[in-house]
Amino acid sequence: MQSVLGVSYLLLSVALYLARRFSQRNNKYYLKQNEDTVFISFTIPLLLCIFLQIFLQKLPIVSVAIVIAFMLAYTSVIKLRITLDPLTGINNRRSLLKALAVKCRNVKKNYSLYFLFIDIDNFKNLNDVYGHYEGDRALQSVADSLSRVCRSSGGFCARYGGDEFAVMQELAADKSPAELCRKIENAVSHHSEKAGLACTVKVSVGFAEFNKDAATAQELIDYADEQMYKKKAKNHKKAF
Known about the structure:
Blueprint: H1 2-23, H2 32-55, H3 61-83, H4 93-105, E1 111-120, H5 123-130, H6 132-153, E2 156-161, E3 164-172, H7 177-194, E4 203-209, H8 217-238
């Protein structure tokens, strides 16, 4: 009976997982790894305990496994909710600060750690003219662009707050942070045009190098923020 119950729960979780993945197949902002985390948390304990139940039939192993599986799945969902930005699906400020603190203590040998601060140009005007729906689409487009860049560069991207984003990136001595900034700027503009947004989205990017421009994580953020505003002022002058 317990094995039947366990298999039933397992089949149900598989069906729900596949239905969710199928329903989101055209959503480019959907992070399938999030769904995978919950699915694995629920199914692995059940599979192990169903196997054990075959040899220990008198013990209520599967019943216990169901409770454990639900607890693991629940904690996985909670963890995802507190580390990801709900609108864009990328890391939030909380997870960024935590990762940055760890990385500042463990920079790879012969590499430099850079913090990039990114701000959408004229975002308030975009909201005022085209509405908040288009503003949200712009935020999602920027997040998607940063995710693509970071997947290829091995960086860590996050939404810092409002229309501000950040990237944490280790670079070898022969790699230029300015080149990475240009890559991000081009990726954001190109993706917004491809996504059919109401207008082309442009960003200003400032960067700081750990142990050169700043000695602590907070100083690194502040310096990159300052450089970003200098870049924004420069871009504003070019527009007129």
